């Protein structure tokens, strides 16, 4: 049976839940993490005007969501990144933010990923949003 949650450490909202869990029947769970933006737990913008810094914070928020269900960034099997006002020359900032997140958070997986350029995100100060899908747990251990 699926379940939804809002992990501590992520900003609260009344519109949707940050995480959905679906048991796969073998002790693993399919985890969908809603698009994460560059907000801290209190909903304060992190790294205003800094794409690399916002990418790093988005990964940190995804890591927070996954930790709440016993996972890490290494459990991610699919990523979708939305970048506002995308231009090819921004790829260096995306890579830099991803690299910094990996160093800060103990590594990331290299799953299939999609980068989508968009005109804008829901808050003009947000430069990037990161959505993730992960498989957490194993057939040996209990599901959390």
Word description of this protein:
- This protein has 144 residues and is an alpha+beta fold.
- It has one domain: RutC-like (60s Ribosomal Protein L30, Chain: A), CATH 3.30.1330.40.
- The protein is 22% helix and 29% strand.
- The chain has 2 helices and 6 strands.
- It has helices at residues 51-67, 91-105, and strands spanning 3-5, 19-23, 28-36, 76-84, 113-118, 128-137.
- Strands 1-2-3-6-4-5 form a 6-stranded mixed beta sheet.
- The chain is globular and about 45 Å long.
- 33% of the residues are buried.
- Mean pLDDT is 93; it is low at 140-144.
Describe what is shown at a glance.
This protein is α+β, with helices and mostly antiparallel strands and 144 residues long. It is built from 2 helices and 6 strands.
Total domains: 1
Class, according to the CATH hierarchy?
Alpha Beta
Helical residues, percent: 10-25%
CATH fold descriptor: 60s Ribosomal Protein L30, Chain: A
The first-to-last residue Cα distance is 13 Å
Overall spatial form: globular
Low-confidence stretches: 140-144
**What would you give as the CATH superfamily?**
RutC-like
Q: What strand order characterises the main sheet?
A: 1-2-3-6-4-5
What is the annotated CATH architecture? 2-Layer Sandwich
Taken in chain order, the helices and strands follow as EEEHEHEE
Radius of gyration: 15 Å
What layout of secondary structure does this protein have?
Elements lengths: L2 E3 L13 E5 L4 E9 L14 H17 L8 E9 L6 H15 L7 E6 L9 E10 L7
Parallel strand pairs: 4-5
Antiparallel strand pairs: 1-2, 2-3, 3-6, 4-6
């Amino acid at each position: 049976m699926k379940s939804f949650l809002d992990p501590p450490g992520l900003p609260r909202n009344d519109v949707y839940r940050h995480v959905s869990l679906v048991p796969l029947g073998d002790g693993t769970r399919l985890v969908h993490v809603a698009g994460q933006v560059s907000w801290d737990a209190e909903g304060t913008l992190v790294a205003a005007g800094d794409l690399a810094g916002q990418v790093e914070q988005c990964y940190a928020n995804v890591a927070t969501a996954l930790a709440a269900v016993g996972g890490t960034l290494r459990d991610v099997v699919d990523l979708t990144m939305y970048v506002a006002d995308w231009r090819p020359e921004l790829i260096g900032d995306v890579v830099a933010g991803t690299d910094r997140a990996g160093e800060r958070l103990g590594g990331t997986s290299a799953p299939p990923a999609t980068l989508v350029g968009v005109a804008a995100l829901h808050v003009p100060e947000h430069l990037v949003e990161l959505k993730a899908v992960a498989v957490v747990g194993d057939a040996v251990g209990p599901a959390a």
